[in-house]
Amino acid sequence: MAAKGADLCDRTFEREIECKDGILKIKQAEVGDESCVVWDAALVLAKYLQTEHFCPTKHLVNKQVVELGAGTGVVGLIAASCGAHVCCTDLPEVVPLIELNKTSNQYMITGTFTAATLKWGQDVSAFQPCPDLVLVADCIYYEESLEPLVSTLCDLSNENTTILITYEERTTGNKPQLEKKFHQLIKEHFIVEEIPEEQQDPVYHSPDIHLLKLKRKL
Ligand SMILES: C[S@@+](CC[C@H](N)C(=O)[O-])C[C@H]1O[C@@H](n2cnc3c(N)ncnc32)[C@H](O)[C@@H]1O
């Protein structure tokens, strides 16, 4: 059942996530939709940000980062714990949960962290200039928002922007077709590289969770 606004924060339970410099305490909502818990694809992306492959020494310090469909905000919080300036975005009713997690993990943030509303397909002028890095975890399963999501990825990126996307491969319903359509859409605008499992976190990787790196086609 969907909960609205501050309701998401009324009853929460905590998940501890170890990261390089400490432990994040992420509050998940007891009542709500898919935004209210940490998904496995988020952990794969969050942990990849801390690998030697992606982040040799202090690579994220002072980088401008925007996360889309952030849910609990865990991926953005890890980026902010590595010194990045992060804006975690989601639908308006989810923003209070991200803010709650910012408050509970303030001591881990060495860059900066804000939460904001961004519905895919809508105006992104508040997020300009284009960030260095855009992060997206497990957001490829809404048919109606597939094209708006790709349009937002285009609006938020230029030739200097890296986009990292994780998604869990799903075999039920129309999910395989959605993933295929998503790949077709991104290939029109981006050079797409799949990061192999051996370059991901040694623990947090899985054959059914894909990690894509996108760069704008010139
Ligand atoms: C499956 S959850 C993933 C949450 C988080 N990224 C994670 O992996 O733990 C998908 C997220 O996308 C957000 N979302 C869905 N449709 C959206 C839209 N049209 N615009 C912005 N965010 C949207 C949801 O609110 C939710 O937080």
UniProtKB/TrEMBL annotation:
Q: At the top level of its lineage, which domain of life is listed? A: Eukaryota
Query: From which organism does this entry originate?
Result: Pocillopora meandrina
Q: Mind telling me what this protein is named? A: Protein-lysine methyltransferase METTL21D
One Pfam family for this entry, by name? Methyltransf_16
> Could you state one GO cellular component term attached to this entry?
protein-containing complex
What is the taxonomic lineage of the source species?
Answer: Eukaryota, Metazoa, Cnidaria, Anthozoa, Hexacorallia
SUPFAM superfamilies attached to this UniProt entry: S-adenosyl-L-methionine-dependent methyltransferases
